[in-house]
Amino acid sequence: MFVGGLLIQLNPTVKNILSSVATTASQTQLGIVAVVLIALGAFVTFIAFVGCCGAVSESRCMLTMYFLSLLILLLAQIGIAVAALVYGSQYCTQGFTNAINTQLGILVRGYGPDPTSAAIVDTIQQTFSCCGYTGPEDYKKKKYQRFCDVLQKGTWPDSCCVRVNDVYKNLTQFFNNAYEGCTASIDEFTKQYMIIIGAVGLGIALIELFEVRRGILILQQFKKKIIFK
User: Fold this and answer.
1) Torsion, Cα of 120, 122, 126, 128 (10° steps)
2) Which residues, 6+ apart, have CB-to-CB distance to 90 below 8 Å?
3) 24 Cβ partners below 8 Å, 6+ apart?
4) Which of 168, 206, 209, 225 is the most buried (most CB within 10 A)?
5) Is residue 46 part of a domain?
6) Residues 111, 124: contact at Cβ < 8 Å?
7) How far apart are CA 70 and CA 49, in angstroms?
8) Domain span holding position 52
């Protein structure tokens, strides 16, 4: 969880997307998710420390607190991980991703006259190897035109053009490597993140399951030790 939160907060691709196309509300929502994950990860670390101290000092109170806290976290984490895997793609498409894509459409429509919009769109298109909102066709009716190569004029930004070793391909090669719109690219990127977070959560939950079992065994051994004394 801690790593997942840091991944959201510190990943440069995520930060570029948020700073470029996300609305203030969507940035806040994702920021809250990251902070919650980091806080939960720190809490799990603290609980593990309590369990370690309880085992060393043979404190029944600390061991019981460790076991119950770990059990609650385990159940909560399994629920969150399953929700992320099952419903994550749907909610991303309907919620956070829609907010980003709406803003992206505004930026694409403002491409050309507004240098700020142009710079943001160029960054997104180069990062995701995509072109336009739904595809290169978004630029066909725009008066502002740029060039993909020195031979032919294209009605799309040069950031849409395919590069090989930093050299632009010609237009025939460009259309043979048809780019999808950035909406689809960002949707897929967000869904992959949800799957990764869910899978990592389930993996950690399995580890915690073994920890819960070990906590039960430690408590049982501690009770037996008290009885024999």
Assistant:
1) 50
2) none
3) none
4) 168
5) yes
6) no
7) 12
8) 2-98+184-228
- For the segment 132-187, what is each residue's pLDDT rounded down to a tens digit? 888 877 877 665 555 554 444 556 777 777 665 555 554 545 554 446 788 888 77
pTM of the model as a whole: 0.53
Report the chain's C-alpha Rg in angstroms: 25
Give the pLDDT confidence score for residue 163 in this predicted structure.
62
Q: List Cα–Cα distances, 21 to 16, 39, 107, in angstroms.
A: 8, 27, 8
142 is a domain residue: no
Which residues of the chain have a pLDDT value below 70? 1-38, 81, 83-97, 141-155, 162-179, 222-229
Q: Is residue 129 part of a domain?
A: no
pLDDT at 89: 55
d(CA 106, CA 88): 25
Is residue 60 within a helix (H) or strand (E), and if so which, with residue range?
helix 60-94
Residue 157 maps to a domain: no
Token pair, residue 218, equals 């430690």
